[in-house]
Design brief:
Elements lengths: L43 H52 L3 E5 L22 E5 L19 E6 L7 E4 L7 E4 L15 E5 L8 E5 L5 E4 L11
Antiparallel strand pairs: 1-2, 1-5, 2-3, 4-6, 6-7, 7-8
Length: 230
């Protein structure tokens, strides 16, 4: 016989394994006695302290992580719009034609169209196209494939419920780049710009400014005092 009084109670057979024993010894999986030897676990106090520490770390980390995501999102969106405007200017110079960027309520439609009128909500998406149908006034805000217009790229709606609006009536629906790279926007004391905002307001917003030469740049409230959000 095997003397079990010296081995106490174990969850998994220590001296006497549950599997592969010629003389299996029956011990309950949940023991009445406190496990001895190397079979140590967590006490209730240790578990509570661990949960409290985890809760404090989550309380500190989650808001910072949310801010990080918002900053990354608004930065990538402003960089994307600058890239769109820079591409439009470059294509106008290269093709010696008008190249437009217009807002679209449904840019991913099978036949996307520019949105005209309304509140000028650019956050729904944009179209970048070569405007063959308007070679004189350079002020056509309508994409028409039947007239020879060429769609270069489609941009979907902004993520994160961010908003994008023009600061003037001239930027409600579209911006057009002439063959010399300049825009059709009339110079003003306040530069023409788009306002990209999230739920934090103007303090975290971006202004995508169009220079008189047509070059776009990104600015912030600290150096662009007229930046406001819807």
């Amino acid at each position: 016989m095997i003397n079990t009084s010296r081995i106490g109670c174990f969850f998994v057979g220590h001296f006497i394994p549950f599997v592969g024993s010629f003389t299996p010894h029956k011990l309950p999986l949940v023991c009445r006695k406190i496990p001895t030897g190397n079979n140590l676990g967590f006490t209730l106090i240790e578990l509570i302290i661990t949960l409290v520490i985890a809760g404090v770390l989550l309380g500190i980390g989650v808001p910072n992580f949310r801010t990080f995501i918002q900053n990354s999102r608004i930065t990538s969106q402003s960089n994307e719009l600058v890239g769109v405007l820079a591409t439009a200017r470059s294509e106008a110079l290269k093709r010696n034609l008008a190249v437009n960027v217009c807002r679209s309520a449904d840019p991913t439609a099978g036949t996307p169209v520019c949105t005209v009128g309304g509140s000028g909500t650019w956050e729904t998406g944009w179209l970048l196209y070569v405007d063959f149908s308007d070679k004189t006034t350079l002020a056509n805000n309508s994409f028409a494939a039947a007239d020879g217009d060429t769609l270069l790229k489609v941009y979907p709606a902004l993520a994160g419920n961010n908003t994008l609006r023009g600061n003037s009536a001239a930027l409600v629906d579209f911006v057009s780049f002439k063959p010399d790279g300049t825009t059709t926007l009339i110079s003003a004391v306040t530069p023409h710009h788009f306002k990209l905002c999230d739920t934090r307001g103007a303090g975290s917003a971006r202004a995508i400014v169009l220079e008189p030469t047509g070059r776009p740049r990104i600015d912030r409230l600290a150096t662009f005092a007229t930046l406001t959000c819807p």
